Amino acid sequence: SLSIGIVGLPNVGKSTLFNALTKNDALAANYPFATIEPNVGVVGVPDSRLGKLADIYASAKIIPATVDFVDIAGIVRGASVGEGLGNQFLANIRESDAICQVIRAFDDPDVTHVDGDIEPARDIETIDTELILADLQTLEKALPRLEKDAKRNAKDKAAQDLLAAARAAQGVLDGGRRLFTGGPEAGIDLALMRELNLLTVKPFIYVFNLDTDELADDSLRAKLSGLVAPAEAIFLDAKIESELAELDDDEAAELLESMGQTESGLAQLARVGFATLGLQTYLTAGPKETRAWTIKKGATAPEAAGVIHTDFQRGFIKAEVVSFDDLVAAGSPQAAKAAGKTRMEGKDYVMADGDVVEFRFNV
Ligand code: GDP
């Protein structure tokens, strides 16, 4: 499933936020693996459609799409030089689809900042720099091998392309830019860079940890958003998130409302993570459960079926599809069928967000 690595300087609220993630008991029950890895937390992607579908189908339970958050400790200024970033750190971050940087904006004299004062722009640069330096080291190690390959296989276009891309990437990183933003501008195919296990090819999401009164400060939020645009910025109070995670749904909604918010920071993070990675969901529903399944935008019906089970993809015959809106307007699956809103789609069908699907397959 989708995985987002959380990085940040010490004392910015990473652990507080991460504890909030792992306290999410309702989800942990549906996803037992969540408790197996101590540094992984699972968050459900909020989706109001699921409740409506569950009503229509009288489903016994609802299973939302989820995002795995991985707590990646270990970044400080200078982490990439000397000993270098630890192997565990690199392994964790490589397995993540996106990187979420937690930045401290709250001020609290009792909580020291590693660099003395609260300065989000500097902290963002510190972390960006460490990741850029780590990528430069990876490239320096890889280049002799890439050069050898390119020389030995003078007619192998892939080897030549990879070497050229690696050299261009070195230039981008030397210029102090991350590959995700700087790469495409320099004409670098990021897919090639992924082969080289580089970190800065991943999309970044920025989470600003603020105090509750700062959360309501629109000009501060605009200023912080400006630091990271066009990347997405999320604003939350890690301490409140941790309290929210211990409340039941109604109480949580009340607390959020009292702060003028409609959605928890963690839910925002899951939603933005989904969008950042070009993912969407389709839905299945029945008396047992209503469930959202995660697919890449552009996935075909058999690919979508494969997310449920590889046998579904292999034996795919047809998908019976009705759009969520049509289904809700009709009021029931029978009424949707009677109104001609239910379609039989074949193997070339490209899934649309919110398709409610039943697959037909051979076993
Ligand atoms: P980490 O080192 O990034 O994992 O930071 P922690 O989560 O351990 O937080 C460091 C300290 O800051 C702890 O004492 C937290 O209680 C406190 N803290 C975290 N978030 C906030 C916040 O939003 N406001 C305030 N005032 N303190 C916070």
CATH fold category name of the domain at 298-361? Ubiquitin-like (UB roll)
Strand element count:
12
CATH hierarchy: architecture of the domain at 298-361: Roll
Corresponding CATH superfamily of the domain at 298-361: Beta-grasp domain
Uncertain stretches:
26-36
Mean residue pLDDT: 89
Distance between the termini: 25 Å
What percentage of residues falls in helices of 4 or more residues?
Answer: 40-55%
Which strand order spans the largest sheet, edge to edge or round the barrel?
A: 2-4-1-5-6-7
Structural class: alpha/beta
Question: Over all CA atoms, what is the radius of gyration?
Answer: 23 Å
Cofactor: Mg(2+)
Pfam families: MMR_HSR1, YchF-GTPase_C
Function: ATPase that binds to both the 70S ribosome and the 50S ribosomal subunit in a nucleotide-independent manner.
InterPro entries: ATPase_YchF/OLA1, Beta-grasp_dom_sf, G_OBG, GTP-bd, P-loop_NTPase, TGS, TGS-like, TGS-like_dom_sf
Describe the structure.
The chain has 363 residues and is of the alpha/beta class. The protein has a domain at 298-361: Roll (Ubiquitin-like (UB roll)). Helix content is 46%, strand content 19%. It contains 17 helices and twelve strands. The radius of gyration is 23 Å and the shape is flat. The protein starts with a strand and ends with a strand. Mean pLDDT is 89; it is low at 26-36. The chain binds guanosine-5'-diphosphate.
